[in-house]
Amino acid sequence: MTQPLQGHVAMISGASRGIGRAVAVDLARAGADLTLLARSEEALEETAALCREEGSRVLALITDVTDRTQLERAVSKTLGELGGLNILVNNAGIHATGKAQSADIEAFERVIDVNVKALMNLSRLALPHILAAQGHRAVIHIASVVSRMSFGGGGAYCASKHAVLGYSNSMFEDVREAGVKVCAIQPGFVATDMVAGHGLKMDKMIQPQDIAKTVRFVATYPETGCPVEIIVRPQRSPY
Ligand SMILES: NC(=O)c1ccc[n+]([C@@H]2O[C@H](COP(=O)([O-])OP(=O)(O)OC[C@H]3O[C@@H](n4cnc5c(N)ncnc54)[C@H](OP(=O)(O)O)[C@@H]3O)[C@@H](O)[C@H]2O)c1
Q1: 92 lines ligand 1 (CB under 6 A)
Q2: What is the mean pLDDT of the chain?
Q3: Which one of 63, 91, 97 would you pick to mutate in the ligand 1 pocket, going by the greatest count of ligand atoms within 8 A of its CB?
Q4: Domains delineated in the chain
Q5: Contact assessment for residue 36 and residue 44, using Cβ atoms and an 8 Å cutoff
Q6: 75-97, pLDDT tens digit by residue?
Q7: Which of 123, 111, 91, 96 has the alpha carbon at shortest distance from 19?
Q8: Centroid of ligand 1 to alpha carbon of 71 (angstroms)
Q9: CA 129–ligand 1 middle distance (angstroms)
Q10: HEC readout, the chain
Q11: How remote is the CA of residue 103 from the centroid of ligand 1, in Å?
Q12: How many CB atoms lie within 10 A of CB 38?
């Protein structure tokens, strides 16, 4: 049977571990060729090897998403070596804590740089090529349940994920008539390094492969509809 994303190219930021790795492996299983971006070389190569085992052609590019020149190189290498771009998964993200009155200003700025500015820059560079592609086309943002609510001591992270939701819904209006899907997936706790070590029950959290399934669902959704927002909460409380 033909795989749903055979002949399609997907780019995933933050593919070295966690949600990004699970998304990469699942899209590889669906038949896509992949460009994988992250800074950790060894871990990124591990993800690439898992995807190649599924039969994908994979470009693993050591990339800091906050560096616009590196993003430009990632897009142009993808076009040159994989022949196009259909799907972008904006997943790279960081978390920082700190109260509004005492937070480390540089840590707060870094969160906005990675979670918001880099995501917008990569989308801007990738979208013209996604618009020009045939077949399934999508930009999928990994936002968060804190795109719609906030918690104390996490102002930069909450602000960044609110921004991602606003940007995602605006982008949908920009490209909807061209048939490109745009979705902000908003998970609660997902069992990854980002939330490990805080005494929460990792086995009760959403698993990274659950989010991967959600990404595939959006990317392969029928032509006439677009799931623009998907909120995923852990079935059972991890507290
Ligand atoms: N885990 C959760 O509970 C949860 C819930 C809702 C939303 N999310 C969101 O899901 C996304 C993935 O998070 P995760 O839980 O999988 O976290 P994770 O395990 O910490 O992975 C984060 C990924 O982002 C990459 N990254 C960070 N800064 C980067 C940079 N400057 N340039 C390139 N890549 C960078 C990391 O790669 P390198 O370090 O190798 O560069 C890594 O691959 C994030 O946007 C996060 O906010 C997570």
Answers
A1: yes
A2: 98
A3: 91
A4: 9-232 (3.40.50.720)
A5: yes
A6: 999 999 999 999 999 999 999 99
A7: 91
A8: 17
A9: 25
A10: CCCCCCCCEEEEECCCCHHHHHHHHHHHHCCCEEEEEECCHHHHHHHHHHHHHCCCCEEEEECCCCCHHHHHHHHHHHHHHHCCCCEEEECCCCCCCECCCCCCHHHHHHHHHHHHHHHHHHHHHHHHHHHHCCCCCEEEEECCHHHCCCCCCEHHHHHHHHHHHHHHHHHHHHHHHHCCEEEEEEECCECCHHHCCCCCCHHHCECHHHHHHHHHHHHCCCCCCCCCEEEECCCCCCC
A11: 21
A12: 24
Reading the block at residue 55, the tokens are 């039969």
Q: Does the Cβ of 183 fall within 6 Å of ligand 1?
A: no
For tokens 């990632």, the residue is: 74
Could you tell me how many residues make up the chain? 239
Does the pTM of the predicted model rise above 0.85? yes
* 1 within 8 A of 79, measured Cβ to Cβ: no
